[in-house]
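In line with agreed milestones, the collection of sequences with tokenised folds has grown. A representative record is reproduced below.
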Amino acid sequence: MPDRRRIAHIQRYRQIAEVLVHHGLGFVVGIVGLERFLPFPRGLFGHGVPSGNSGAPVRLRMALSELGATFIKLGQILSTRADLLPPHYLEELARLQDQASPVPTEAIRAIVVEELGRPIEEVFASFDSTPLAAASIGQVHAASLRDGTEVVVKVRRPGVAEQVTEDLEILQNLAATASRHWDLAEQYDVVGLAQEFTQTLEGELDYVREGRNAERFADVFVGDHDVHIPRIFWESTTSRVLTQERIRGIKINDLDALQEAGIDRSDLARRAAKVILRMVFEEGFFHADPHPGNFFIEPGGRIGLIDFGMVGTVDDRTQRQLVDVLVAMTNEDVDRLVDVLFELGVARRRATRDQLRRDLDHLFARYYGRSLGDVEIGPMVEDSLALIRRHRLRLPANLALLMKTVAMNEGLGRQLDPSFNLTTVLVPYARRMVLRQYSPSLWARRVGRASMDMARLGVELPEQLRRVIGEVERGGLEVGMRPEGFEPLVARLERLGNRIILGIVAAAFVNGLAVLISVYKPPGWDQWAGVVFGTGFIFAAILGVYLAWSILRSGRP
């Protein structure tokens, strides 16, 4: 790493550590190995003073907000992971506002000119200098094209990509350190979570990808006059600048304005739910941030949807497993339900199968004998997520996004119509999904693929066996073992060895000093003996106190 970049990294590490300590989150500093970047007294003896009387969720939100764009996005994404954090943390992190002070218009115009390679006047007939919104990554301005088409221009803030890249590298390093020092971090695979977050945020930095997402949704709803996806103008779009059609309408949570416009809110709740459910269950590609600010209701009731930076996917395998969950619940087959959870990857290696089965049986007993249309999605999802957290399970990223999207969808419907029940809209999609997964044509394709795999295996197996036997005969076959479970034990043994050595050194120093004083008496020794003895005693006492402190400190939870 070049010296300048290394110095910048160290300064950023120090800033992160100081912000965490300032907000009373010093225990996190110890977990991720940042204490060495703090001044000695604060890093060794203090964890900071919490701000006011705020609880931990509030202090976490304040710390993430102070650390800037990357950490704000991290908090927003964590607010969607109800499988990882309890509800009071989710509620607080959901309050993170991705807002920033506006970038001067001159800097924004300079970026647009640099990216498009032409003066702004040649591309736009007008370009409003006052931003519509200013977030930590991008800033949005109203404009119009030369033909009079109203558009919005999203411009990436200068320098944000470089800062985000540095922060993402730091987060991955901190995640790796936490996994080595904290069992819970290893159980939840925080390294994998950091990698998922990196991919998500890198996607939000690339406006070309967001534009392609919008076009994919436009293809899904082509010919549907009930949904409006904004058009992307590619001739004035790059990875740093996105130009798209401007959608005007009433925000979907502005109930008074909807009432004045004569919009049937109950019907709107059903239509908005169908839009999201169609994406999920028919296309397998869905808008993963369906909060009210991304829905606009145009005159006539058409739904305009914006902001396609965060999307989710449901592949064929996940759809099959979701069908298995529905079938297992319908048949009251808890054993099959546990099997599906393990197949989905939510059950880590330390999960206890028997206890998980008992808890699932207790959880879903209240839903047995009831049709899917009679079940409220919200309470069932909350109960399931509480069980997932209790067993320290982890959902795959796409499934976590799906559950969050469905829950937000129901919440949006309830805002519009308090009597809205998502399951009344969900049931037809669930039935079609079950029928599709068990259709003869789909099974025929699966059998065909399996037959090809079996034929290929039959042809390749003899050759593979010959290679294995040959390696055994030559003595070249080696069996590897990953001693991950021994790492905590090895670390404890190393610490124990260090303490023993330190104790031996302290004892040897005291003993050697005593022998030296009793044997070696040069001229004038009497006047210096007390000073030498006192200095040696103080040094030995410091070693002893430090040894005792480290032993007591290691015994804390």
Notes: Residues 309 and 433 are 27 Å apart (CA to CA). The first strand starts at residue 124 and ends at 127. The chain has 23 helices and eleven strands. Residues 440-474 form the longest helix (35 residues).
